[in-house]
Amino acid sequence: MATSIKRIRFAFAGILLLAVLIGLAVWPSGPDLKLFGLDKQLKIHEGLDLEGGSHLVYQADMSKVPKNERTERLDGVVDVIDRRVNALGVSEPLVQANQSAGKYRVIVELPGVTDVEQASKIIGATVNMEFLEQDPKAKPDPTNPFSGYKRQTELTGADFKRANVGFNPQTGEPEINITFDTAGTKEFAEMTRRSVGKPIAIVLDGAIISAPRVSQEIGDGNAVITGAFQVEEAKDLALQLNAGALPVPVEQVEQRTVGPTLGQDSVQKSLAAGLVGLILVAAFMILYYRLPGVLAVLALLLYTGIMIALFKLVPVTLTLAGIAGFILSIGIAVDANILIFERMREELRDGRSLPTALEVGFSRAFTSIRDSNAASLLMSAVLYAFGSGTIRGFAIVLALGVAVSLFSAITVTRTLMRLTVRTRLAERPRLWDAPKGGKRA
């Protein structure tokens, strides 16, 4: 079916506009998104192997956990540490479980983190919070800070909903405001009702940090932890409470800082290999397919720009494996064009006109392109579902590349060719590898 020149020109104008926008996003400095009310920096997020950072390994103590529950507990540790890392504001961290030789470990990679000691303290902390009532039957003992309190109560740190840092309006000192969940609100109300005029000890990790005296029953589920906090200490404590308590104790068994020198050297070699490959592919397409090859190379350049822009906008954490996925996706993008051009050649040799051969060639090649790309997307989904770390990064980049390659081949290349066959270039059969005397329309 013939396509109107108006639609073709409209599609071409859209491609030009897209190219301009992609150029702005790909430009090293990038646009200033703050002008549009967005506080976001357009940059490629590099993984630990490229940017450098901190590599931490924690071992979970499963000695008191039944064997059939250990995997689930380790997954719980991963979830908690992942929330803590995200709360730190680390860009594109990696948190994954590792089981081998009877050891249960969690590997944490923090790209760009310099204060590894602070991060390690927050990530590996096992927060145990208790609320203790006074025990009137207990005998005072100056050497025992817990003397006079009931060690077992119904209210624990598992009952709190969230914590945030505030400041005492009288003293200006930092304090931590805690809100309990529904069950905790009920327990806290009963505890404060029983303890009017008496202190309630707030215990964190085995130490009493505050023992405020209850003046009245508190029924709204809000409590305040006070103490001699510095602002940063209060923020760290609130962060730990919000992140949750670890299901099992963990011990840090490895801590090292990874420099980006090897990564930068590897990425330069990978990018150089990708550039050489791109040049060779472009040369092959132009020499073998002539004018269609030139148009395919233009579409391929736009494809490359779209991918780099997506790396910045999504954002995608780029690792060496991700670069490999990107280079592989370039081959997939070229493969779609090859299928189309070979179909066109067959139609031209059967005596069809150039515009007809173009439309029929795209139509008949689409089934093969669709099936091959669907298989690649399925493979990417499997790798992402069952892989971790760099494998997932490879899968994400490959899936993005496949999706963009469909747009590049089906929309960009076809639009350029539809526009070109309506020009004087269509009168030169050698540019299209068409038989002499072929029809133009």
Key features of this structure:
alpha+beta, 4-stranded antiparallel β-sheet, 441 residues, disordered C terminus, 3-stranded antiparallel β-sheet, 3 domains, Gyrase A, domain 2, elongated
Description:
- This protein is α+β, with helices and mostly antiparallel strands and 441 residues long.
- The chain has 3 domains: 211 residues, Up-down Bundle (Multidrug efflux transporter AcrB transmembrane fold); 76 residues, Alpha-Beta Plaits; 115 residues, Gyrase A, domain 2.
- The protein is built from 12 helices and 12 strands.
- The strands form 4 sheets. Strands 3-4-2-11 form a 4-stranded antiparallel sheet. A 3-stranded antiparallel sheet has the order 5-8-9, with no helix packed on it.
- A hairpin with a 2-residue loop joins strand 8 and strand 9.
- Helix 1 packs antiparallel against helix 11 and helix 8 crosses helix 11.
- The C terminus is likely disordered.
